[in-house]
Write a structure and sequence with these properties.
single chain; mainly alpha; Rossmann fold; 5-stranded parallel sheet; 6% strand
Length: 302
């Protein structure tokens, strides 16, 4: 049994490495946020693709900060310098890219830079479900929360990304060519019609412009490995299909991602610990002062 599994694994790795020998983008994901793009990222990684995703920037530390400058420019000029994106992807030897950060550069990616790449479009089973998921996850954590402010103290790239977020939200969630500020769950719920219109238009456009032989549409990743591997012409791996970044764990995932992988973790850890000690100390002192004040008031009454 062990020998059989070992042989199967070796054959799988051989076929995958042969398929990915060419260091260029072979897969482009075109789904909006909350359609399973992070799950697709993990699945492609298991299959041997080196996959570009927003978190690659966030976990790359200061060395990846210039990429945000590129995306600021791409979102404000409608991807006027696609050759720079190609340089970024080729510099790090990526073979796939799947995040909504690509939105202003979709046409350049699909038809100019990598016209032979296969396209995987993720979507939800209904626009209503997509809107509900976005409203209670992305819209919820995009606001200027205290947790994000604390992380921003120790991770400069997160502060920079915070300034970029309104542009990303505007284009990839609302379909606007300008920044959308102060997005909250309530804001998204009140703009339901606008968001669903954009979502449906985006899905329809991708299906209309991408040739059928290059396109795989995935709804909720309900088919697991089978259709994905068949489309990519790679063997099915002997591991469970990943399902990650669920709505309820989105903030936790981001926090763990920042703590575990940012290159100045030791620096941040010391100061986060110091911050925690200060909070505990402040709480304890406040409690003591409150108790002393209460005792004095009782004495005066007596």
């Amino acid at each position: 049994m062990f020998i059989h599994q070992l042989v199967h694994r070796l054959i799988f790795l051989l076929l995958v490495s042969t398929n990915l020998a060419q260091s260029t983008i072979q897969v482009i994901g075109t789904g909006t946020g909350r359609t399973g793009s992070t799950t697709l990222h993990e699945a492609l990684s298991i299959l041997g693709y080196k996959t570009y995703h927003m978190k690659e920037i966030l976990t790359g530390g200061s060395s990846r900060a210039p990429e945000l400058d590129y995306w600021f420019d791409a979102f404000t000029t409608n991807c006027s310098h696609p050759e720079q994106l190609k340089d970024i992807l080729e510099k790090h030897e990526y073979t796939a890219t799947v995040h909504a950060i690509n939105f202003p550069c979709h046409d350049a990616l699909l038809f100019d830079l990598f016209p032979d790449a296969k396209v995987i479009h993720t979507e939800r089973s209904s626009a209503e479900l997509w809107h509900d998921s976005v409203s209670h996850s992305i819209c919820k954590i995009s606001r200027d929360s205290m947790l994000m402010r604390i992380f921003g103290i120790f991770f400069p790239i997160l502060r920079k990304f915070k300034n970029f977020t309104p542009l990303l939200m505007g284009r990839a969630i609302f379909g606007q060519y300008e920044a959308v500020q102060n997005v909250t769950t309530e804001y998204c719920l009140s703009h339901k019609e606008e968001m669903i219109q954009f979502y449906n238009d985006h899905n329809a456009r991708i299906k209309a412009v991408v040739p059928e032989d290059r396109l795989l549409v995935i709804s909720n990743h309900k088919d697991g490995w089978e259709k994905l591997c068949e489309f990519l012409e790679v063997p099915v791996p002997d591991v469970l299909f990943p399902h990650v970044n669920k709505r309820e764990s989105m903030l936790k995932t981001m926090a763990l991602m920042m703590v575990k992988k940012i290159d100045n973790f030791s620096y941040a850890a010391r100061y986060l610990m110091g911050f925690g000690v200060c909070v505990i100390g402040y709480t304890f002192c406040s409690w003591i002062v409150k108790k002393v004040t209460s005792s004095r008031d009782k004495s005066k009454v007596a």
